[in-house]
Amino acid sequence: MLEIPLSSAVLQCNKSMSKGECFSREFQEIHMPLWFFFHLVGCFLLSTRAANSKHHWLGSDLTVLSHECPKVHMVFPVRIFLLSSSVNACVDVVLSGVKLLEALGLEPGDGKNHAVLNSRQDLKEAFTHFMEKGAAAERFFSNAESFHHIARIASEYPGAQLYVGGNAALIGQKLATNPDLKILLCGPVGPKLHELLDDNVVVPPESMQERDEFHLILEYQAGEEWGQVRAPNANRFIFSHDLSNGALNMLEVFVSSLDEFQPDLVVLSGLHMMEGQSKEMRQRRLMEAVASISDIPTDIPIHLELASMTDQDFMSNIMHQVFPLVNSIGLNEQELLFLTQSASGPHASLASWSGVPDVGVVSDILFWILKEHGKTTERASDLTRIHFHTLAYHILVTVDGYWGNQVAAVAAGARAAGTQACATETIDTSKVFLKAPLEFVTSQIEAPSKISLNPDEPVVHWHREGISFHFTPVLVCKDPVRTVGLGDAISAEGLLYSEVYPQ
What we know:
Elements: E1 3-5, H1 19-48, E2 60-65, E3 72-76, E4 81-86, E5 90-96, H2 97-103, E6 116-117, H3 120-133, E7 137-141, H4 144-156, E8 161-165, H5 167-176, E9 181-186, H6 191-196, E10 201-202, E11 214-220, E12 225-226, E13 229-230, E14 235-240, H7 243-246, H8 251-261, E15 265-269, H9 279-294, E16 302-305, H10 312-321, E17 328-332, H11 333-342, H12 359-373, E18 385-389, E19 393-399, E20 403-404, H13 406-422, E21 432-434, E22 439-441, E23 450-452, E24 460-464, E25 467-473, E26 475-477, H14 486-496, E27 499-500
Parallel strand pairs: 1-2, 4-9, 4-15, 5-11, 6-7, 7-14, 9-10, 15-16, 16-17, 17-18
Antiparallel strand pairs: 2-3, 5-8, 11-14, 12-13, 18-19, 19-25, 20-27, 21-26, 22-23, 24-25
Helix pairs in contact: 5-14, 10-11, 11-12, 13-14
């Protein structure tokens, strides 16, 4: 293992700094050397790790020493790594939500949540509802003709940008920026999406289709106003009329490709897209998805990325039928709350989050998921890991004995949030701020521990009945360049820096 002291030129915390400034400096100390040494020691580590089992390491190890701080052990991606990513892929059309609604001739008004969008009026009300909360959401637009008209206006609007979209494609695209990784993407890939994908992303011929699926990403900035509504923070509202991803059309292609590709990791997403299908179709395809996932060899870790949903029965079905088949899941605060509401779990009576989600409440729900649906000696479940991310902080939760290097994994995810939102290669302390609570309790149900954050040790650990929690604050971008895909980037980095223990 390499031990590399930081240069004395790296800025240190001192007594005159606020805790927020100290956290910024400490994250800078941890993160700057990692980026720098990626170029210096990558080839060396590639050769020294070549003999390791491909099924257990999702990267290689590197230790960084910080002045007056403990060692921070990082897993580093420096060898050939094969990842299969399925099932949703699309083209994201990203633009200002307020400007699009104005271009559609819509006036500001009251917000209202809609499970499905049937008209422009529904779109305006749903966007307003979530903009007022500063919360991310995704909805299906049922009217094809109206959606395609809106999509044409959006794509032609000055300043609109086209990006790779879909949780699976975004995770694959993020990892593909590392030249030592190869990604197999099985999703509906049209000509524009194929053009946007990284060269390291392999698309089976069966996944190619004549037309792209477009998702509209309506962004808003912190403090942006529309009528009487003022956004508390930057976020986005997503909607689409996506039938290919909604029907999981590429699921069978994905499973049939595994034997030839032989991946180190499988990433699944897109189950939320089925909400646009009829209840009968949805249940039939979910059962077929369960059968296909069951066919994946048990020595290949499977990560499921969740997304915004509105049907509690369908969420409950996913929890009971899919969770036991995957090793890891990734989700944000909206998905976590909807999950516990769907299954009458802890804090299910909480209607919505108020400000930064309470760490004790979040911890209780995460603990309950692994206790009720995770792997135990009595339960035939493979679920042993949850990566939770919200704007202010992240928590990585693991069942003891199955995952290692959690400190590095959760720190890497937090770094990805700050750098991607600000579009910088490293954390720029002038562009970020600390939003996480500096003190919190670890549970609102059981006798909790009270934790005070220490800038010298930005990753905090606690333990609860065989389950480990690793918490880290996020250095939040003051003026984010782009909000869509942040959760996928966070999950991608966390996975890449993770170690799977052989069983």
